[in-house]
Design brief:
Elements: E1 5-9, E2 12-13, E3 17-24, E4 29-33, E5 44-48, H1 55-64, H2 70-77
Antiparallel strand pairs: 1-3, 2-3, 3-4, 4-5
Amino acid sequence: MEKRRIAYSHNTKKGILDNDYTLFDNGEVLHEYDKSQYPGQYNLSETVSIDKISESVKSDFLKSAESDDLELVKKLLGL
């Protein structure tokens, strides 16, 4: 079964560096980010656990979730 995106958080660091998080229906969180503008330091990604994300990202997840997915997002976030 293919995972489905149910929420996201789109932010930037220092106004230009990506710092995005995507929550999938299986509980996986994908962090896509730039460390700097130098070659090899941008368009990076890693999977992180929900307990490692900030409260502001969790808040963004709740705001971005469709009404059909809101209960699942809350459950995955432990709310």
